[in-house]
Design brief:
36% of the residues lie in helices and 19% in strands. It contains 11 helices and 13 strands. It has a 9-stranded mixed β-sheet, with helices on both faces.
Length: 340
């Protein structure tokens, strides 16, 4: 019954989103193309689809081929506004947890946050001496900027074609907006994914010829810690991580919070109490950025327990070289230096 009540609200939301796109398409609201190559990693659904691991993969790929990339994010749930370039004094309060995670992973790469992506790219061009390409984390709906390349992520267990517009479903944008992506990446695929499973998805998506389809899964770091963990996370879909942890620690338990949750001292009290029967606390790389500004690490240390982050990367089921080639070809063809 509750979902049925959401249907008319979903229609109203769809109309609002469609009008907004029409205003941009008719250039009543302006959009801008920037001079530097721009790669947008995004989705059209709410919740986690693996944007941060994909952003990290693309940045690592560009670095390996001699480019000088920068990362631009909106800095979701930060306590600041405007353009900020990450530095040694940055925290999740100033730049947000995802930007902080990327800043720690790539200290040599400029990481900036700005609500206005056009202004953010322009500021990066002014402040960064060598800049070959900007990777935008989560800018699919930001129509004010026309990115040169869009990489659309959609989870295997809830493809955008199977979803509905908010609040009936999780789509925050029209499915037709997927057409502007040149790469469609089906993320969080199961370990036992077969070629026939990929063909079924390919046939169902029925992509135009200019779009290349890729399939990826999550790679978790090996679990070497002895004992039993309390799994602590504030992410959109913790069951992916929990399935992996339970395969190694059958008696692990999950303590979950909402995505991007800002941990309070009351939360820390509850976590410390909950962790008492466990040997250590296991969390995500995104969560540990928020937990570092709390007293949790010190309080666990006083109990001879550790807070450990579980690194995540992506792995390809389709040829990795095809995705790499698509990214590198775009940058090479649109880079003014054209020296790579």
């Amino acid at each position: 019954m509750r979902n049925i009540l959401y249907i008319p609200l979903s229609w109203l939301y769809t109309i609002g989103v469609a009008i907004r796109h029409l205003l941009f398409d008719q250039r009543i609201i302006p959009s801008f193309t920037v001079e530097v190559p721009t790669i947008c990693v995004g989705n059209i659904a709410m919740g986690g689809t693996g944007k941060t691991p994909m952003t990290a993969y693309i940045v690592q790929l560009l670095l390996a081929h001699g480019y000088h990339p920068a990362i631009l994010s909106r800095g979701y749930k930060r306590r600041t506004r405007g353009f900020l370039l990450a530095d040694t004094a940055s925290t999740v309060d100033t730049i947000g947890d995802e930007a902080m995670q990327l800043h720690r992973a790539f200290p040599e790469v400029p990481v900036a946050v700005c609500e206005n992506r056009v202004r953010g790219v322009h500021q990066l061009q002014r402040q960064v001496n060598e800049l070959d390409v900007v990777v935008l984390d989560d800018a699919m709906q930001h129509r004010a900027i026309r990115c040169g390349m869009y990489v659309l992520l959609t989870p295997y267990d809830r493809l955008y074609i199977d979803d509905h517009m908010f609040p009936w479903g999780r789509l925050r944008d029209l499915p037709s907006q997927a057409l502007k992506a040149s790469a469609i990446v089906v993320t969080k695929c199961p370990d036992n994914l077969r070629p026939i499973d990929m063909r079924v998805v390919d046939n169902r998506l029925h992509l135009p010829t200019y779009q290349l389809l890729h399939f990826t899964g999550l790679n978790y770091a090996p679990m070497e810690q002895e004992g039993t963990p309390l799994v602590l996370c504030g992410i959109a879909h913790p069951h992916y991580m929990m399935d992996y942890v339970l395969a190694h620690y059958p008696h692990a338990q999950l303590m979950a919070f909402e995505d991007h949750h800002r941990y309070t001292e009351q939360d820390i009290d509850a976590i410390v109490e909950k962790s008492k029967p466990f040997d250590f606390v296991l969390t995500t790389e995104k969560d540990i950025q928020r937990l570092r500004i709390t007293s949790l690490v010190e309080r666990l240390a006083a109990m001879n327990k550790r807070l450990i982050a579980l690194p995540i990367s992506i792995r390809f089921y389709t040829p990795q070289a095809a995705f790499d080639r698509q990214i590198l070809q775009y940058v090479a063809e649109n880079n003014r230096k054209n020296t790579h």
